[in-house]
Design goal:
236 residues; alpha/beta; Arc Repressor Mutant, subunit A; Mannitol-specific EII, Chain A; five-stranded mixed beta sheet; 8 strands
């Protein structure tokens, strides 16, 4: 769903005047459609998260409709896994190492995926601040995979990711999705759970896989269910 200025203002707990000011400053991701501004839910949440702006869970109540069950973030992370001490000395070499640890079908061309992720970063850093980046492809459909995964990587050395706060990145969540709809769904939910201070603390101390899974499940359980099917383990 494309949000109106009023919708965006309500979700961000600011005035419509503030939204228009941000649009004029080109500070907020917006689209001009039929002489009116519209906002994408996932992009709005990612933007708000990177600027530490509080956002209401109501952003999930009017997601895209469809018969295909949407995945939970917890199930996607279970499928993608957690990797510690991932190598690399700069953004390209880190992405190369991340590609190596991704849990992907054999038929996926990892070199192609690497080039796509690298190209995505040239369009704008996926570093959202606080030492965290969310590398993802701009068009998930091109990979032709059957299930969504989120892979959490803790880097061996913090690197410059051209993040919005100019801080080095040491934590990467890499999203791989079979559909645009699933991709936006996971990106939105990830942006929301990263506002939780306990979950972020677990990330900072590089907690165990079990502790991270438990913390994520706790935060995600407070979110509205997607099409009544959040408990599904994966998109068929």
């Amino acid at each position: 769903m494309q949000l109106s200025v009023k919708d965006a203002a309500n979700l961000l707990n600011v005035s419509e005047k503030t939204i228009y000011r941000w649009v004029k400053q080109e500070a907020i991701p917006a689209y001009r459609i039929n002489e009116q501004f519209r906002f994408n839910r996932a992009e709005l949440l990612e933007w708000a998260t990177s600027r530490r702006i509080h956002i209401s869970p109501d952003i999930f109540l009017e997601g895209e409709s469809g018969a295909t069950p949407l995945p939970s973030l917890s199930s996607a992370l279970k499928a993608g896994g957690v990797a510690y001490r991932v190598g690399g000395t700069d953004m390209p070499s880190v992405l190369r190492c991340v590609i190596d640890v991704l849990n992907l079908p054999e038929e996926v061309d990892r070199e192609f995926l690497y080039q796509v992720l690298l190209a995505r970063e040239t369009l704008g850093s996926t570093g959202i601040g606080g030492g965290i980046a969310i590398p993802h492809v701009r068009n998930p459909v091109i990979l032709h995979i059957t299930r969504p995964t989120v892979t959490l990587c803790f880097l061996d050395h913090p690197i410059d990711f051209r993040a919005i706060d100019n801080q080095p990145v040491s934590i990467l969540f890499t999203l791989i999705s079979p559909t645009v709809r699933a991709h936006l769904h996971l990106l939105s939910r990830l942006g929301f759970v990263l506002q939780d201070q306990d979950f972020k603390a677990a990330l900072k101390r590089q907690a165990s896989r079990d502790e991270l899974a438990e913390a994520l499940s706790r935060v995600e359980s407070a979110l509205p269910k997607a099409n009544g099917n959040q408990s599904k383990e994966q998109v068929p």
